[in-house]
Amino acid sequence: MAHMKVPLLDLKAQLVSLEPEIKKAVLDVVDSTTYIMGPKVEALEKQVAAYCGVPHGIGVTSGTDALLVALMALDVRPGDLVLTTPYSFFATAGVVARLGAVPVFVDIDLRTYNMDPALLKMWFESNPDKIPKVKAILPVHLYGQCADMDPILKTGQTYRIPVIEDAAQAIGTTYPGASGVKKAGTFGVMGCFSFFPSKNLGGIGDGGMVVTADPALAEKLRKLRNHGASPKYYHSLIGGNFRLDPVQAAVLSVKLPHLESWHEARRRNAAYYDAHLNVPGIVKPAAVYGARHHIYNQYVISVPEKRDEARKFLTDNQIGNEVYYPVPFHEQECFRYLGYRKGDFPNSESAAQKTIALPIYPELTRDMQDFVIEKIHAFYR
User: Which among 80, 214, 201, 209 has a CA at the least distance from the CA of 136?
Assistant: First the structure.
């Protein structure tokens, strides 16, 4: 097979068809001279809220700030506990620590890389003395597939703890729960999204959004993102500058109508890998609720051995690949003070040592996928 270059992600390929619309949207903002908030942001908030099936969307500066402002809206303070997973992008635990609260980790289910609901339940049963300090449960919908929300929500309801969803990688993915099929971000009290350029719905810079069905929380979030002010210069809360840029909002409004077709293309690419990537010991992503409930923000395989050598081989053959994520939170230097040790979360540690993300973006061609598959087969032969 002819040699070719296969990037992990090709934003240029996506831009080609949308370039005139995107440039016009950006120039419209420039011409409007409304450079902070304004109609472009309001329009996107309505569009994303409607897409998710909830009444309120609050645009913010990034996925990180979406998580931060959601915790602030629940009055998370120093010494409070927030339960989350040790296996995610740093922001998930970082925002908890930034508020002086304590991230408490619950290991993942190795099939999904998401929080294990049984271990969450077990934590509450094993730590009755700590429950009064728990302010939130923060599951992550990693790689574009929902955490198992029914049992997580049940645990939250049992102990009267609100659930915030880190849906940064999961806009538009669905979960067939007890209350019917609903979209990520709409199960807990708030759902947090990222519009980082590599996401399924990505801007041309940083951006994020919080969605909620609760009007009081929506109002509080709107205040918090603007220094806690309403009206201007009258501050009932101490917030921050977490306002979504109208340039990003304008670009995202151009892209949003294409999101479902991009999801479908990712699913087709995932199905092709599933059918043709047959190496003994390689574990392909488990779409535990069925492929239509996964948006494949990443296509992550687990390899039996020689992960780093396999990555080098792929890189040497100009095939983009990545490890999401090489160091679980409990092994990060900055979280040493939490007192965890290597071995405390074996599933997260195993995922960190064995996984590789392969190219999965919508514009990937069959020839490119065949080349990736051939090279993985060649390495493990």
Answer: 80
